[in-house]
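In this section we turn from sequence analysis to structure. A common task in structural bioinformatics is to predict how a protein folds when a small molecule is present, because the ligand can shape the pocket around it. The inputs are simple: the amino acid sequence and a SMILES string for the ligand, here zinc ion. Study the lines below before reading on.
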Amino acid sequence: MLTMKTKCEACRSSLRNDSAATICSYVCTFCSACAAEMDNQCPNCGGELCARPRRTTGAVQISRRAPARILRSLRTRR
Ligand SMILES: [Zn+2]
Ligand SMILES: [Zn+2]
């Protein structure tokens, strides 16, 4: 699984799993603003920076996939 870094390595601004970010093949991670400034070239390894696929987590996605009986048990517990 891809390690999702939570901070831009250049400006230290925080990056959420679902926010726009760029990574190189060594998973150096930068925000899109820094990547643009660096011409999409990683300053650590010289590699190309590509947009990181977003990872969305949370109840919405899980409940969409969960069978109806699990949803029912969640509802009664609440
Ligand atoms: Zn940055
Ligand atoms: Zn790199």
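Helices lie at 32-37, 59-65, 68-77. As an exercise, try to locate the residues that line the zinc ion site and compare them with your own expectations.
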